[in-house]
């Protein structure tokens, strides 16, 4: 797989437009999920220029995403049918009480005007499928849905969800990599391509990235370095690695595990 990172050109973020008419307010896995949703909108940026994020379901997963999107400055409208939860989160972010499994309710909410919808309902398979199907019928450009099992995920994909996440499985996979090796953080992007945070192997300490030939020898790319007490900086071939640095490294999961396992 081609490495998407280029030492000569630091990666830039994609900005999510803020629509008129939707309010905004105050704001580990939730941040990642919200960030991924925001970045995913860039694929249809022209079409979704004036669209916000419609979030359905205020369980722990949905609430965390709503708060994070608000904190990141993205407009979000939450929909929840439980009056107690609506009362609990009133004032934290824009929300309405409605049953999103009813297509008429979504139409009245203007669901067609949103560029992204997130179905955070997971415990009720029927509600999850009905809501996702309603959004598909309304032509929502990007639908993200939470699943609680592989079977649930397959159903959501089949009825038209563009992105399906399994939070518990993803968290378990991440923790397994952290407790079984020398990795300090682990994020799998897609198809085995992964980004990790780690300490530098002894053989790289005191040398520049170019001198160590890390990409050539190990098949991974150092994309950022954090010296003690300083901010992360984008790595170049001239970046010198010290023993107490933190590295952000990208590559295939197996190659990263081997690189991190070196003394």
TrEMBL record:
InterPro entries tied to this protein: NAD(P)-bd_dom_sf, RCK_C, RCK_C_sf, RCK_N, Trk_Ktr_HKT_K-transport
PROSITE patterns in the record: RCK_C
Record domain RCK C-terminal: where: 181-263
GO biological process terms on file: potassium ion transport
Pfam families xref list: TrkA_C (PF02080), TrkA_N (PF02254)
Region of interest (Disordered), ranges: 1-26
SUPFAM superfamilies: NAD(P)-binding Rossmann-fold domains (SSF51735), TrkA C-terminal domain-like (SSF116726)
GO molecular function, one term: monoatomic cation transmembrane transporter activity
Protein name, UniProt field: Potassium transporter
Organism of origin: Actinotalea ferrariae CF5-4
């Amino acid at each position: 797989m081609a490495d998407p990172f280029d030492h000569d050109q630091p990666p830039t973020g994609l900005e999510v437009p803020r629509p008129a008419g939707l309010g905004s307010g105050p704001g580990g896995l939730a941040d990642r999920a919200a960030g991924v949703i925001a970045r995913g909108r860039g694929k249809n940026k022209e079409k979704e220029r004036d669209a916000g994020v419609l979030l359905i379901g205020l369980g722990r997963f949905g609430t965390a995403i709503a708060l994070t999107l608000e904190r990141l400055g993205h407009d979000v409208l939450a929909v929840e049918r439980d009056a107690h939860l609506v009362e609990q989160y009133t004032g934290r972010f824009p929300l309405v009480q409605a049953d999103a499994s009813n297509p008429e309710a979504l139409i009245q909410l203007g669901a067609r005007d949103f560029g992204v919808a997130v179905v955070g309902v997971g415990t009720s398979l029927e509600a999850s499928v009905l809501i996702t199907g309603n959004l598909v019928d309304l032509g929502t450009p990007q639908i993200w849905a939470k699943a609680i099992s592989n079977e649930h995920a397959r159903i959501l994909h089949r009825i038209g969800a563009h992105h399906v996440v399994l939070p518990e499985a993803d968290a378990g996979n991440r923790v397994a990599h952290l407790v079984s090796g020398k990795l300090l953080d682990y994020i799998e992007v897609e198809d085995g391509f992964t980004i990790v945070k780690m300490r530098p192997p002894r053989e790289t300490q005191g040398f520049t990235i170019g001198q160590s030939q890390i990409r050539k020898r190990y098949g991974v790319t150092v994309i950022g370095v954090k010296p003690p007490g300083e901010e992360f900086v984008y790595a170049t071939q001239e970046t010198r690695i010290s023993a107490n640095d933190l590295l952000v490294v990208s590559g295939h999961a197996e190659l990263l595990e081997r690189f991190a396992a070196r003394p």
